[in-house]
Amino acid sequence: MTVPIRTSLKLAVVSLALVAPAFGQTPQDRSDAVAHARALMAETPLIDGHNDLPWQMRDHGAGDFSRIDIAKPQPELHTDIPRLRQGLMGGAFFVAYVPAELIANGATRFGLMQIDVIHRMVDRYPDTFALATTADEVTAAFDNGRIAALIGLEGGHAIEGSLDVLRTFHALGVRYMTLTHWRTHAWADAATDEPRHQGLSEFGESVVREMNRLGILIDLSHVSDETMIDALRLSEAPVIYSHSSARALTDHVRNVPDSILRQLADNSGIVMVNYAPPYVSDEVREYRETDSDSSPAPRATLAQVADHFEHLIRVAGIDHVGFGSDFDGIDTTPVGLEDVSTFPAIVAELIRRGYTDEEIKKLIGLNVLRVLRDAEATASRLQAESDPTVATISPQIDEPEQR
């Protein structure tokens, strides 16, 4: 008799639970917590808000899965299919990252190429991945034993100042867009660059409204505080931070301040914890910012990542926090969170810190699914109320030209 895939995962959770002790726990304590984590992850999909495997495929394999076959172990990467399965991944936003250097010079083309990588990944490995554009498609993939592959577009400069292009990206499956990357561009200020607009320009406000109408989630990772505030004021759908942590714990501008975290509940949005060591450890951040060459270099830890979860939960609320690892987009990882196989370890740590099963399920996936459904409902309403907005600007100027 063939055992259903999801049932077989549940039967396997105990046998897969043996790991080394850490953080002052006895081996039995840790094994029990990881077994508990795996059991919950077999019932509720863990959805990672930010995985940069498509960039690594482009950077190291020219986007060619025959050159880097992720069905086999790829130790130079954080992500491959064996470790995705080991980590009980339920879904991920695989990211079409567009380097900021391409502002006004091929950004749309590069974004399309990266989206093609994600589509080809799903087509090449159909027993592993299923393309998902809605919350229901995520849960259907999970129920069928597949990993839901959602598409995020990292860098609003990829639309090259055109709402027409934004709609084309949506048609190709993009379900969130990070408004900026490292650099400020023609309609939005970045956290790590000089401001030009004190948040969003007039055209940037049109982008937010059209994203709401389409059902593309507004991703505020990488943007300035002023851009965050503008987007929260304008958006009728929940916003997300696909890979950001708590500024109160690690004072990096890429993280979210408490004053803005408190607004997430009103917006129904979500902040998804980034594992990047300079964003979760002040010691690592200071070491990097001072270009220190002292040895040994400090390392971030799994416990520090869990600290960020706890702070975000205290300030924003249990309904507004999730996972946003940034695997394959970071050059180092916290000790204990080396790759996608380690998701049960961080879930187990949260269990040991006293979170209930229902709270853990919210953190690993239910919060993301709610946000997706809310955005879908908002889009359905707005599409019934209004036609698409047709507006373009030059990628190098600020004011829109209506046509």
Features:
about 400 residues, alpha/beta, TIM Barrel, 9-stranded parallel β-sheet, two-stranded antiparallel ribbon, 16 helices, 11 strands, about 45% helix, globular, disordered N terminus, disordered C terminus
Structure description:
It is a single chain. By secondary structure, this protein is of the alpha/beta class. The chain has one domain: Alpha-Beta Barrel (TIM Barrel). Helices cover about 45% and strands about 10% of the residues. The chain has 16 helices and 11 strands. It has helices at about 5-10, 25-45, 55-60, 80-85, 105-125, 135-145, 165-170, 200-215, 225-235, 260, 265, 275-280, 280-290, 300-315, 345-350, 355-385; strands at about 45-50, 90-95, 130, 145-155, 175-180, 215-220, 240, 270-275, 320-325, 390, 400. Strands 1, 2, 3, 4, 5, 6, 7, 8 and 9 form a 9-stranded parallel sheet that branches. Strand 6 (about 215-220), helix 9 (about 225-235) and strand 7 form a beta-alpha-beta unit. Helix 1 (about 5-10) packs antiparallel against helix 2 (about 25-45), helix 2 (about 25-45) crosses helix 15 and helix 3 (about 55-60) packs across helix 5. The longest helix is centred in the last third of the chain and has 29 residues, at about 355-385. The protein is globular.
